[in-house]
Design brief:
Layout: E1 16-21, E2 24-29, H1 34-41, H2 43-47, E3 61-65, E4 73-76, E5 87-91
Parallel strand pairs: 1-5
Antiparallel strand pairs: 1-2, 3-4, 3-5
The protein binds FE2/S2 (inorganic) cluster (FES).
């Protein structure tokens, strides 16, 4: 994580939940959009990224398995609320997360 994210960025949360991003388990704040969770993981890259945060630009596209689903679905990460056990398997090239190991590359 790069720096401590200011708490006012996030929807209120009581705890961190675990999801997987490109095969890596991470802890993110519950009750928040996935893009906001990415910001929690990498404050600088996501804060200065090219994101509208309102569903217009599509730069925040991901593919994600929701718990219990057999197939990944495409989603706008600024519009989908995180749930425990989600597995994000693909990131748009605009989503850069320095917390991921170098072998995990965004498409
Ligand atoms: S950030 Fe623009 S659509 Fe999600």
């Amino acid at each position: 994580m790069s720096g401590t994210p200011p708490t006012e960025l996030f929807e209120p949360y009581d705890e961190l939940i675990e999801i997987e991003v490109l095969g890596q388990p991470v802890q993110v704040p519950e009750n928040n959009p996935i893009l906001r969770c990415f910001q929690f993981l990498d404050l600088e890259n996501i804060s200065y990224g090219d994101f509208c945060w309102n569903g217009d630009c599509t730069n925040c596209q991901i593919k994600v398995f929701r718990p219990g689903e057999d197939h990944p679905r495409g989603a706008l990460s600024c519009r989908m609320t995180v749930r425990p056990g989600m597995r994000v398997v693909e990131l748009s090239k605009h989503i850069r997360l320095s917390c991921l190991t170098p072998t995990e590359t965004a498409r």
